[in-house]
Amino acid sequence: MKILVVGGGGREHAICWKVAKSPLVDKIYCAPGNAGIASVAECVPIGAMEFDKLVAFAKEKEIDLTVVGMDDPLVGGIVDAFEAEGLRVFGPRKNAAILEGSKAFSKDLMKKYDIPTAAYETFNNPEDALDYLETAPMPTVLKADGLALGKGVLICRNLEEAKAGVKELMVDKQFGSAGDRIVIEEFMTGREVSVLSFVDGKTIKIMTSAQDHKRAKDNDQGLNTGGMGTFSPSPFYTPEVDEFCKKYIYQKSVDAMASEGREFKGIIFFGLMLTPDGPKVLEYNARFGDPEAQVVLPRMKTDLLDTMEACVDGTLDKIDLTFEDNAAVCVVLASDGYPLAYEKGKVIQGLDTFKDKTGYYVFHAGTAFNHKGEIVTNGGRVLGVTAKGNDLKEARANAYAATEWITFENKYMRHDIGKAIDEA
Fold it and tell me: In whole angstroms, what is the distance from residue 414 CA to residue 420 CA?
């Protein structure tokens, strides 16, 4: 089979790497890819939002399956564009990707179908939002309705911060049109857990759990990022939590989308908060999380391509989805200054160290080749260093040891990824 993966970050590197292990695969292309992905796939200089060019490429190369890694093209309707030309593609159609594309839609869906989530109100203009905040309990959470690179969520400790947040989202347009509408919801306390799943429109198969670290600095300080590291499984995702979520959240979400005429095929990522009142949904995503994919996919025993094909064909119930009985930790190596201003083009050394190491992986997020053919930094998040271990503590120690193998000027990372496991 010939496969095309759309995207160019750490998530897409992990997908390409995992798909390459399938005996069904003859050739992988990735658009646009990056310097690390180039080791397992042929990179094609087509942007993820250039649907016409991607469709034309898929036809020219007779691609058997296109896998869309990113949220923007999914929400923009890339699956519809491919299906209209008779091409097989893995991911939700535009009318289903709205599950991630609109916070207001997903909150309304949960309310309508009695899926546990935080209480909320939706606002289309800043004046109404500011009036509501005058009597709202603090702290509170402000969310841009649209896509904002995982950063459009503001946790406001008091009224002053909340008012400033409304200005930032709706008036100053910090995240562009994503803030035209906002959701204000109650602040929930508890452990956060990420659970990814495969969905074929009716059947849902749950992957192993994970936990992300969004803040830029140690001890969850600093600005929100696309993710500074993650670990899997979460020790807080107990059998009791799993049982509750299977009964009240997972299948109900799939059935709710089907009832709305929005059949969902692809990945549903459940962001959960384990509150004192039980698990509640923080958010849905319509694709693999990043960096969650970088710890979940290395632990997946089942053939990824088989599983994605079953989602497209509606035969997921025939797949036996299994994961290794171990743990994985990913530490993101970033450019100092991320997520604001940072320099690119720094030469990366030590990548070859991973080639002969079992259980150690380096997934490229923001890398490129310079004119000398050297691999250099090309983004805020540069690399995801992942290691496995028999348990989380061992995996964490292995991952941090592996971060020392890599050097580049202005290398930055958090030093407390997975620290929460010590409290489990």
Answer: 13
The residue length of the chain stands at 424
Distance CA 6, CA 378 (A): 18
DSSP at 348 = P
Q: Which residues of 36-56 are buried (b: 16+ CB within 10 A; e: fewer)?
A: bbbebbebbebebebbeebbe
Alpha-carbon span 90 to 70, nearest angstrom: 12
What pTM value is reported for the model?
Answer: 0.94
pLDDT (tens digit per residue) in 222-241: 988 889 999 999 999 999 99
Residue type, 91: G
Please give the Cα distance from 387 to 373 (Å, whole number): 27
Nearby residues of 340 by Cβ (< 8 Å), 6 or more positions away = 223
Pairing outcome for strands 27-32 and 42-43? parallel
Query: How does residue 174 score in pLDDT terms, banded at 50, 70 and 90?
Result: confident
How far apart CA 26 and CA 64 sit, in angstroms, is 11
DSSP of 81-138: HHHHTT--EES--HHHHHHHH-HHHHHHHHHHTT--B--EEEESSHHHHHHHHTTS-S
- Inter-helix orientation angle 159-166/126-133, to 10°: 170
Distance CA 69, CA 11 (A): 7
Residue 149: pLDDT band (50, 70, 90) is low
Pairing of strands 140-144, 182-186: antiparallel
CB-hemisphere CA count at 13 Å for 84?
A: 11
Nearest by Cα to 385 from 396, 398, 399: 399
Report helix, strand or coil for 60.
Answer: helix
Determine the Cα–Cα distance for residues 332 and 60; give it in Å rounded to an integer.
Answer: 36
Structure tokens, 380: 């805020």
Widest pairwise Cα distance in the chain: 60
Q: Model confidence over 246-301: pLDDT tens digits?
A: 999 999 999 999 999 999 999 999 999 999 999 999 999 999 999 999 999 999 99
- Cα angle, residue 335 at apex, residues 329 and 337 outer, rounded to 5°: 115
Taking the CA atoms of residue 15, residue 297, residue 228 and residue 270 in that order, the dihedral angle to the nearest 10 degrees is 100
The values of phi and psi at residue 235, to 5°, are -65, -15
Distance, CA of 276 to CA of 253 (rounded, Å): 22
Q: Which residues contact 38 (CB under 8 A, 6 or more apart)?
A: 369
406, 348 Cβ separation under 8 angstroms: yes
Q: Are strands 375-377 and 327-335 parallel, antiparallel or unpaired?
A: unpaired
